[in-house]
């Protein structure tokens, strides 16, 4: 910033960063979900609240946090459940000490396994411990979303 022009450009950039709305976000209302690239929000039968535990990094304890939250809610008398869609290394079966396969209901829907007062459904029940991670594809979660939508 030895030159007069470099300093001028620097301070002009700072002024832009201090603008009250630098990203041009709407001041009132919200952007419709579809314009933001989000799917349409639909209610889930018999579900009042959904708590999502997510991270862009692996191995940070998402399953442990989800398990502890569900157990705490169950202790308070709430009906709780976990849907573990981790296709790379599902750990909910281990955390809840559940290793059998879920059964099918009369209308061909999977019946969640339950322990400690929490209903659980995990990819780990479906692929097994020794199964190769063939399900671990980038489009794997899209197939899970489609299966949930059909049920």
UniProtKB/TrEMBL annotation:
PANTHER family: IRON-SULFUR PROTEIN NUBPL. Keywords: ATP-binding, Nucleotide-binding. This is Uncharacterized protein. SUPFAM superfamilies: P-loop containing nucleoside triphosphate hydrolases. InterPro entries: NUBPL-like (IPR044304), P-loop_NTPase (IPR027417), YlxH/NBP35 (IPR033756). It comes from the Eukaryota. Pfam families: ParA. The keyword ATP-binding applies.
């Amino acid at each position: 910033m030895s030159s007069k022009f470099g300093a001028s450009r620097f301070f002009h950039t700072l002024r832009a960063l201090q603008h009250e709305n630098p990203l041009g976000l709407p001041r009132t209302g919200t952007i419709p979900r579809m314009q933001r690239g989000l799917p349409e929000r639909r209610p889930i039968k018999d579900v009042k609240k959904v708590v999502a535990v997510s991270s862009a990094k692996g191995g940070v304890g998402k399953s442990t946090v989800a398990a502890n939250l569900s157990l705490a809610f169950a202790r308070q008398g709430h009906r709780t459940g976990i849907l573990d869609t981790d296709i790379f290394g599902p750990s909910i079966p281990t955390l809840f000490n559940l290793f059998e396969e879920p059964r099918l209901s009369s209308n061909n829907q999977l019946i969640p396994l339950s322990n400690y007062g929490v209903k659980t459904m995990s990819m780990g029940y479906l692929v097994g411990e020794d199964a190769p991670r063939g399900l671990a594809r980038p489009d794997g979660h899209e197939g899970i979303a489609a299966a949930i939508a059909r049920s």
